[in-house]
Design goal:
239 residues; alpha+beta; Alpha-Beta Plaits; eight-stranded antiparallel beta barrel; 7 helices; globular
Amino acid sequence: MAYIDGFVLAVPDANKEAYRKMASEASAVFRKHGAIGFVENWGEDVPQGKTNCFNSAVLKQEGETVVFSWIVWPDRAARDAGNAATMADPALGGPGMEMPFDGTRMIYGGFEQLFGDALAAPGLINGTVMPVPSGNRAAYEAAAAKMAELFLKHGAVSVVDAWGEDLPEGKVNSFHTAVLKRPGEDVVFSWINWPDKAAQDAGWEKIMADPRLAEYGPATTGADMGRMIYGTFRPIVAA
């Protein structure tokens, strides 16, 4: 399976085009150094949670939108070498480069892909991040794979799940703080890729009525759904 770098950040609405341009240019540099996929998704429906949410994860401010994105690598070794080469590449901009967002509030980390087509062309993305007990990885993967089959049956293009492996703590925030991670838990980064909003709405209606939802849902493997964060995003860069 591939290795995935996941990112969540907040971008000022006024800087959307500047961010899209920067990300598009960066995608070429990452791909030059071994990345096989690069997708940036702009928040379209990111609800405010009672406990936590994508907005709290990145300390979102007024006039900002949450971005959910990923880079796909062939494996962990390619990711480590590729990131090192990319950071040293002057084409990326170098130290002191001005970015159209607050990089100190960006959360990022490396995830081992469990299943799914991470290279499928993105349509409309349901992104999620959740905590799962570390010892329940095998049970989670088995249940989530069956759950993915339901989504594919009901119209999704692809479903991707990835298990946190290299998640830095961060000085301001991180994937750990995003899900209020507790001892003995790991973080899962995942997305459901729909062709469009109509397919998403119809698919979710069928999923919610499917009795197998209760059997395969993340809660059955110990995931605390009260700390799962989720939202709907639309791609602005896909390379």
